[in-house]
């Protein structure tokens, strides 16, 4: 296989192919790359199944957009874990391999494995819910029926049902009262018919007296009268029943209206309860149903559920597990050597730059000190030259005795000095114009050194 194709799996595993120098490391990190690719497919399906379970298995189209995003995030995490090498930057000058890598810590391993297991569980659970969808639907149906029965026994439906039963009992009481009068009237009519039949039999000579006819005051006549009396009583009872119905009509109408309203309310509430309860079949409800199936039928469902879950979790943790198992191999040592060498070179360059900066600063300080010293020396030369020139000038120029007296006096002079030098001796010393050129007498002129007398 060409080298470029062999390095594809190493790039997928986020490994530097240049540092993979042994066959063992190449096989190891190529296997990690294969697990990463397989896990991308597995995480894509798991993320899509999670969205599908959250939508009550309505199969939304966007689940295949969210699934790859979840898979990309999990794969990016695994690649970051695999590609990371814990390099130690202490004792950079040491060549001992035990100083190349940092010592592992419990928190590092526990954190990585914990996150890997978390991703595995979140992605594995939706797949398991899809696997046992039929059993979960049956369990949810049972749970929903229990919830509907419990809601009917409590809440608004129960209150309305009790009120409806009370109205039905009131209506039944009214019906019983009317029916009692009607039954009594019917019974009396039945008795009247029986007595009349006896009177007919007695008048035909088939009675107790065996006398034909129905004379007044006789047994036949008494039976007829009793029969007619019972008919009158039955009619009276019918009239009472009719009057009772008239008095009950308003109450019956009110109860009938209330019963219709309550029946409609109960039907609407039951429909709303059924919709709400049936909607409670999302990810949480299905997870609870799955857990009930696992605990109630462990050998039928739980064993396979746990086995498949552990298999998928092992697939998720395979890349990270191989990374932990291969700590300190040749690849990590090569990466550590390269990184430590670069850090050591950068440290040496940094130290050299600091030394150069210090040397440059010292040289600049020395140059500035020499410049200050030379400037001081030049000032001394100028001052000595001025003093020498002044001395030569004092020796060459003859100063009048008056000037010497004035210059020798250390007090204040009320008369200005230039008044002794200029002809205008009466001037008070305040001039708005420049002073005039002093007049030197001819007998006071002296030749300066180096000048020839005219």
UniProtKB/TrEMBL annotation:
InterPro entries: DUF4407. It comes from the Bacteria. Pfam families: DUF4407. Residues 423-454 are annotated as: Disordered. Keywords: Membrane, Transmembrane, Transmembrane helix. The chain crosses the membrane at residues 27-49, 61-77, 106-124, 298-322. This is DUF4407 domain-containing protein. It comes from Paractinoplanes bogorensis.
């Amino acid at each position: 296989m060409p080298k470029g194709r062999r390095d594809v799996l190493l790039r997928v595993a986020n490994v530097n192919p240049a540092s993979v120098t042994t066959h063992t490391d190449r096989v190891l990190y190529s296997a990690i790359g294969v697990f990463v690719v397989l896990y991308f497919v597995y995480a894509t399906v798991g993320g899509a199944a999670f969205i599908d379970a959250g939508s009550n298995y309505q199969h939304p189209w966007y689940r295949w957009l969210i699934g790859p995003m979840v898979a990309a995030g999990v794969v990016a995490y695994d690649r970051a874990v695999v590609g990371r090498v814990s390099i130690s930057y202490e004792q950079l000058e040491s060549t001992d391999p035990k100083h190349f890598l940092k010592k592992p810590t419990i928190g590092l391993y526990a954190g990585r494995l914990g996150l890997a297991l978390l991703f595995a569980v979140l992605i594995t659970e939706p797949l398991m819910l899809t696997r046992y969808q039929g059993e979960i639907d049956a369990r949810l149906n049972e749970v929903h029926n229990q919830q509907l029965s419990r809601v009917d026994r409590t809440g608004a439906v129960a209150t309305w049902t009790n009120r409806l039963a009370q109205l039905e009992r009131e209506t039944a009481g009214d019906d019983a009262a009317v029916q009692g009068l009607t039954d009594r009237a019917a019974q009396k009519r039945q008795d009247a018919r029986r007595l009349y039949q006896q009177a007919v039999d007695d008048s035909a000579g088939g009675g107790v007296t065996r006398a034909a006819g129905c004379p007044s005051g006789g047994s036949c006549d008494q039976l007829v009268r009793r029969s007619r009396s019972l008919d009158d009583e039955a009619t009276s009872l019918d009239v009472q029943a009719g009057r009772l119905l008239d008095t009950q009509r308003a109450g019956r109408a009110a109860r009938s209206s209330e019963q219709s309203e309550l029946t409609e309310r109960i039907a609407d509430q039951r429909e709303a309860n059924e919709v709400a309860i049936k909607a409670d079949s999302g990810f949480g409800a299905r997870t609870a149903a799955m857990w009930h199936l696992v605990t109630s039928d462990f050998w039928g469902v739980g064993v396979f559920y746990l086995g498949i879950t552990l298999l998928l979790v092992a697939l998720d943790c395979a890349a990270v597990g191989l990374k932990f198992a291969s700590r300190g191999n040749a690849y990590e040592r090569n990466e550590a050597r390269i990184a430590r060498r670069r850090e050591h070179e950068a440290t040496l360059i940094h130290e050299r730059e600091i030394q150069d900066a210090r040397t440059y600063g010292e040289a600049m300080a020395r140059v500035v000190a020499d410049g200050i010293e030379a400037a001081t020396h030049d000032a001394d030369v100028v001052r000595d030259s001025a003093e020498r020139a002044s001395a030569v000038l004092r020796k060459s120029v003859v100063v009048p005795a008056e000037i010497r007296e004035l210059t020798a006096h250390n007090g204040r002079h009320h008369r200005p000095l230039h008044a002794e030098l200029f002809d205008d001796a009466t001037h008070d010393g305040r001039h708005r114009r420049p002073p005039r050129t002093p007049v030197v007498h001819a007998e006071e002129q002296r030749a300066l050194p180096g000048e020839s007398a005219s």
